[in-house]
Amino acid sequence: MQAGILAMAGIIVRIIGILYRSPLVAIIGDEGNGYYNTAYAIYTIILLVSSYSIPSAISKVIAARLGVGEYKNAHRLFMGALLYVIIMGGIGSFVCFVYAGKLVGENSAHVLRIFAPTIFFSGILGTLRGYFQAHQTMVFTSYSQILEQIINASVSIGTAYIFVKALTQDGEAETTIAIGGAKGSAMGTGAGVLIALAFMLLVYFVNMSYFRKRRKKDRTKELLNPIQIGGIIFGMVTPVVLSTCIYNLSTASNLKIYQGIMQSDYGYTEAMATTAYGLFAGKAMQIINIPIAIASAMSSAIIPTIAHSHERGEYDSEKKKIASAIKATMIIAIPSAFCLLALSEPITLLLYPQRSSYLMVSGLIKALSVTVILYGLSTLGNAVLQGTGNVNIPVINAAIALGVQAGVLVLLLKYTDLGLYALVIATIVYSFMMCILNGLAMRFKLEYKQEFIKTICLPALAAICMFLAAFVANYVISIIIRYIYKDETLVITGLNNLIRLLISIVVALAVYGVLLIKLGAVTENEIKQMPGGTRIAGVVSGRIKPLNMEKNSKRFAVGKGSKPLRRRRKSVRKRKI
C-alpha cells in the first residue's frame, strides 16, 4: 500500500513533468532544451553524490532502530544525517557553481550555475523525506513530490517565457536566447525544492510532540555517540551514494562520449551535438522515465520494510515482500513497454509536437521501450540488496555495467553511423547487465528464486494482446480520420491525434485488465493490497463496496494524534484479547 502511494505520486510527478516540458520546449527550442539537459545531467551526478541518495540510506538505518524500539537512537541518527547533508550539500553547491565551466560546455555552464544552490536545499529535503519513510509512511513524501513538481512546472515555464521574450526583444542571437530560456527553466527546479522543503518542515514540526513523547518512553541504555553515528551514516550512505551515482553516471557518461566523438569525428559544433542529444535525453528518455518512476517509488518504499524484516530475522517475510514488489512493478512495467512500442508516434506528437523531430523521437522511444522492464527490475534489485545489507554489490554491478556500456557506445559511434541509436543500444546493454547481475546477486546472497509464470509470463502474454489491440485501434482510427478529412496531415494534428491516442489507450487498458484477471495473473487479495484495491476487487467480483467518506481532520499526524488510528488500535486490542 505504501509503495503504491509513492508509485502513484511518482506517476503524477512524471505526468506533470512531461506536460510542462512540452510547452517549455516550445518556448526555449530544441537548442535550449539541449543546454538544459546537458547541465541537468551533471547537476544530477553532483546531487547524487552530495545528498540525493540520503532518503533511501537514512530510511534504512532509522527503520532498523525503530524496528527494535530505539527511538532515541533513531532521532540521533536523523540529526547526524542533517549535519551530514548540510556539509556535503554545501560542498556540492560550491563545486557546481565554481567548476561549472570545466564540467560542461561554456553555454551549458550558465545553466549549471543556476542549479548550484538547489543541491544544498535538496539534501535537507531528502533527509526529512527519508525520516518519514523510515516510519513507513509515504504520504508526506508523496505530497511534497507533487507540490515540488507543480511549483517547478509553473516557475520554469513563467521564467523561461520572460527570459526568452526579453532577449528576443533585445535582438540577441538564437544561442543567447536558448541559454536564457534554459536558465529560466533551471530556476523552476530550485523554486520547487524550496517549497517542498517548507512543506516537509511544517509536517515535521506538527509531529514533533509525538516524536518527543516516544523518545521519553524509550528505555534504551546504549545510546549512540557521535563517532558511532558518523560511522553508521558513512557506512550506509557511502555505498548507497556510490551505487546510485554509478547507476546514474551512465547518463553523464553517454553525454560526454556522444558530444566528444560527434564534435571530433563528425564535425558537429557544441550547439549541434547538444541539440541532438536533447532529443534523446530531453524528449525520448523523459517519456520512457514515466513508467520507470513506479520502480523508483517501489524501491524507496521497499528499503525500510525489508530492512525491518531483515533486522528481525524474518527471512520468509522478506522474500514475500521482494516477490510482491517485483510482481507489482512488472504488472505495470511490461504493458507500459508494449504500449510505448505501439503508440510512440501519437504520444510523441501529444507531448512534443515539433514536426521537425517527432519521427526521430518516436523511433527512439520504440527502441528504448524494452528498457522500461529492464530498469524496473534492476532498480528494484538495487533497493533489495541495499535493504538487506549487501550495499557494496550494487556498486560493483553498476561499475561493471558502466564500463561495458561506455565501450559499446564508443565502438558504435566510431565505426557506425547509428548516431543517437548508438545511445539507445548502449542504454539497453547497461540496463540488461544491471538486471542480470542484480538478479544473480539476489539468488546467491538471499537465496531468492524469482517466480516467472504469474510475475513475467502471464503479464507479458496479456501485454502482447494489448499491443495488438492498441496497434489495430490506432490504425483504424487513423484511417477513419483520413477518410473524413481527406487530408493525411490532419491525422497527426492536435485534437485528432489526441482522440486516436485516448481511444487506443482505453482499448489497450481494457484488453490488458481483463486478460490479466482471466489468466489468473493477479488474485483478489493482491488487488486489495493496492491503493483503492478493495473497491477494485469489489467491482471485479461484482461486490461494489460503498466509498468511505470519513476524513481524518488531523491529516498531517503520523502518531497518536489521529483519532482514526486510535480507534483502530483499540479494535486490534479487543481482537487479540
Helix segment count? 20
Spans of at least 5 consecutive residues with low confidence: 543-556, 560-577
Percent range of helical residues: over 70%
Overall form: globular
Percent strand equals under 5%
In this structure, how is the largest beta sheet organized?
none
Kindly report the average pLDDT value. 79
Instruction: Please report the distance between the alpha carbons of the first and last residues.
Output: 27 Å
The secondary-structure class comes to: mainly alpha
Round the Cα radius of gyration to an integer and report it.
24 Å
Order of helices and strands: HHHHHHHHHHHHHHHHHHHH
The tally of strands reads 0
Secondary structure: elements and pairs:
Layout: H1 2-52, H2 54-67, H3 71-98, H4 100-103, H5 106-134, H6 139-169, H7 174-206, H8 208-217, H9 226-265, H10 270-312, H11 315-351, H12 358-368, H13 370-387, H14 392-415, H15 420-445, H16 453-485, H17 494-518, H18 524-528, H19 533-541, H20 563-576
Helix pairs in contact: 1-3, 1-5, 1-6, 1-7, 1-9, 1-10, 2-3, 2-5, 2-9, 2-10, 3-5, 3-9, 5-7, 6-7, 9-10, 9-14, 10-11, 10-12, 10-13, 11-12, 11-13, 11-16, 11-17, 13-15, 14-15, 16-17
